[in-house]
Amino acid sequence: MKLPANVQGESSLYFEKIYVAGPAFVTFNLLLVLFLSCSKEKNPSANKETQHKGIDVQLDKQKAKKTNTLAQAKEYYNRGVFNQKQGMQEKAIIEFRKAIQLLPDYAEAYNNIGTSYQFLGEYDKAIQSYRKSVEAQPDLIEGHHNLGTLYLLQGEIDQAITAYKGVIHFKPELATAYVDLGRAYGMSGQLDQAIEQFKIALNLDSNLLEAHYAIGVSYRHQGMFNMATESLEKVIAQKPNFAEAYLNLGYAYRDQDKLTEAIDTFYTGSQIAPNNYQICHELGITYMKQHRYKKAIVAFQQALKIQPKAVQTENNLKVAQARLAQKK
Predict the structure, then answer these.
(1) Domain 260-328 belongs to what topology?
(2) What are the CA-CA distances from residue 65 to residues 62, 72, 98, 105, 309 (Å)?
(3) CB 179 within 8 A of CB 208
(4) What confidence tier does 46 reach under pLDDT thresholds 50, 70, 90?
(5) Could you give the angle at the alpha carbon of 153 between the alpha carbons of 187 and 126, nearest 5°?
(6) Residue closest to 135 by CA, chosen among 166, 163, 107
(7) 178: exposed, middle or buried (C-beta count within 10 Å: 0-12, 13-18, 19+)?
(8) Fold match between domain 68-156 and domain 260-328
């Protein structure tokens, strides 16, 4: 198709101008392309850098906020511990709860709330708090231990055994945990299992006083008197002022009809713990078995000074006095 003259002229002129100015124009275009391509390469980097800086700022803010939250929760927790030590259990609970509001999984705070409630005699609330502590942190052995001890106090032996097993699960090298479990078995009448646990404790720590004492008492209840006396004598050698060890050692001697040894043991215990009613009472009983009524009367009278309403001791005192009168 033939173009109109004016269009042809303009078109020719246009192409001619391009042709004449071609090299300069091409050079300009190349520079423009290079500039644009460089700009395109630089801008994404700049944008990415800006984005990274923004993210870093956000992360720093979040980190700072988290640090402040942890610090504030720890401050509330420490206030709770202070109030607890001062005997202000209600105030302690308030502070521990403030810590939990900031850190809902603050296991130690739940555990300490439990100890405060236990001190106040609110055992159900204490148990709930101990449970929450081990739910928040399953390996918190203090929570398992406290739960077991409170169950034991309430006579819920099976639950106590389960809780103490929780301690051992997370810390099998802890010798005292086996002593706790053994005591729970002992209270349920499972003496064989109890002794087994005490033996494990002693394998872990051969000098563990409470394990020697517990196994000695268990041996006595099983009628294994020689082993009982051996264990209890070890306890007294380690801790000469342990009154309960003298009491149980006295029982072990008396159960074997070793009355002289029993009297010596009860008497020594009464000197170490003059306000221990049971030792004084058992000393009187043992004197009665030897027909030493004057000594028995003195022992029973001492026991009644400690527990004036002890009916059994009153009756034994009357019997001792009557038999002494008959002797005269």
Answers:
(1) 1.25.40
(2) 5, 10, 17, 17, 63
(3) yes
(4) low
(5) 145
(6) 107
(7) buried
(8) yes
Q: Does residue 195 have a pLDDT over 60?
A: yes
CA distance 242 to 214: 13
Dist. CA 113–CA 268, nearest whole Å? 42
Residue whose C-alpha is closest to residue 141's, from 100, 186, 171, 98: 171
Distance, in Å, from the CA atom of 147 to the CA atom of 163, rounded to the nearest integer, reads: 6
Reported pTM:
0.75
d(CA 125, CA 139): 21
SS3 state at 229: helix
Which residues, other chains included, contact 98 with Cβ-Cβ below 8 Å and sequence gap of 6+? 73, 76
Of 34 and 165, more confident:
165
H-only helix segments in 223-306: 225-238, 243-255, 259-272, 277-289, 293-306
Q: Please state, as a whole number, how many other Cβ atoms lie within 10 Å of the Cβ of residue 33.
A: 10
Residue with tokens 């639950």: 159
Cβ neighbours of residue 280 under 8 Å, at least 6 residues apart?
270, 299, 300, 302, 303, 306
The CATH class given to the 68-156 domain equals mainly alpha
The per-residue DSSP string of 235-256 comes to HHHH-TT-HHHHHHHHHHHHHT
Tens of pLDDT, residue by residue over 226-253, are 999 999 999 999 999 999 999 999 999 9
Q: What are the structural domain ranges in the chain?
A: 68-156, 260-328
Rounded CA-CA distance 116/139 in Å is: 21
Beta carbons within 8 Å of 200's beta carbon, 6+ residues apart:
175, 178
Statement: residue 148 has pLDDT above 70? yes
